[in-house]
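Priority: low. Protein: NAD(P)H-dependent oxidoreductase. Input follows.
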Amino acid sequence: MSLIEALNWRYATKKMNGQAVPQEKVDQILEAARLAPSSSGLQPFKVIVVTDPALKQELLPHSFGQSQIVDASHVLVFAAWDNYTEERIDEAFNRTNAERGVPAEATADYVARLKIMYLPREAEINFEHAARQAYISFGTAIAEAALLKVDATPMEGFDNVKYDEILNLGAQGLKSVTVLPLGYRDEANDWLVGLKKVRQSKENFIIQK
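Result:
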């Protein structure tokens, strides 16, 4: 199946049937998310994988009662750095340099420019930038899930503060951004399953210059 075919197949599943997604497919989706591009290669976010039924039940009332949270096999929570710090930038480039076998001096000027750009900014501005990087990974995970014929429901409708509290994200310097339940559609009980996919026309969507 091509990516276009997969994207035509997928939809924002409203009701899942509780069937478990094979771990190898979940691993592929997470690997796609890990390999997604990010600004300066910093990857300023993490993916929290929730499978514990009790924890999913705890998250449910803070997810506007959306049943996919408890019916999904795995719930992926994309959480971004709450701020850019000197330590975080150094850690990212120390790892990159070590894996590429290059000296720190090779990237020193670039790292210095990043610090000049990021470190003076307010934490909220830096968090918003990090969150945009998380969204790139989020979209990549959605596409990979579709290619594997795993249903996924992109969610912004949840109480970020409560998620952060329940998942202890603040202690890790993270703030939740988006949620992606993975599972399989309940075709008999999902009102959206048979409806035509509607998007803007190509003429309206694409602006040629």
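The chain has a mean pLDDT of 97. The chain is about 45% helix and 10% strand.
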